[in-house]
Design brief:
Structural class: mainly alpha
Largest sheet: 2 strands, antiparallel
Number of strands: 2
Strand content: under 5%
Order of helices and strands: HHHHEEHH
Shape: elongated
Number of domains: 1
Helix content: over 70%
Number of helices: 6
Radius of gyration: 20 Å
């Protein structure tokens, strides 16, 4: 069962990477188009900037979940690095439970925010709901919560960042 869950989280991780990558590529393509139409054609397109903002919101929440799973999310590792044995596990568990609490908050209140704003429209895109711009909050919270569950279930509480780019804290 645990192996199946980890495999599902690996698949979710790849999907998140794809979505974040698509967001970045589209942003990279539409912003120069907005600049081109404004300064070369003397007619500014109204849609590239709000679409880029919407995509950046999606990118931010999806990439935050990715960074968390890969051990690249912001963390203070000095205290766990100084501990050994059960105190280290206790601190790791408490940190993961706090992360779970934050993500449950994002999920619960994010869903309420999306529900509240769903029938409003974005002025630049009259067919797009304002709720779409807030949807990354509960989606990012749910994805990160699944990654927290994976970490708690597998017991890998203190991941080293991918590639070992950070030096470990000295405890001497």
């Amino acid at each position: 069962m645990q192996a199946s869950y980890v495999a599902a989280m690996e698949a979710l991780h790849r999907i998140c990477m794809f979505v974040a990558g698509v967001c970045l590529v589209v942003i990279t393509l539409i912003i120069p188009w907005g600049v081109f139409t404004r300064y070369v054609l003397n007619y500014g397109s109204s849609w590239p900037e709000p679409l880029a903002v919407l995509l950046m919101i999606w990118f931010s929440f999806i990439a935050a979940a990715l960074c968390y799973r890969e051990g690249l999310h912001i963390s203070v590792r000095i205290l766990p690095s100084m501990l050994q044995g059960w105190p280290r596990v206790l601190v790791g568990g408490a940190a993961e439970l706090a992360m779970a609490g934050i993500n449950l908050f994002m999920l619960f209140w994010g869903v309420r925010l999306v529900h509240t704003t769903w029938f409003q429209v974005i002025s630049d895109f009259p067919i797009v709901s304002v709720g779409i711009s807030y949807l990354p909050v509960p989606v990012g919270g749910a994805i990160t919560l699944m990654f927290v569950t994976e970490r708690l279930w597998t017991g890998r509480l203190f991941l080293d960042p991918a590639g070992g780019g950070l030096a470990p804290a000295s405890v001497e």
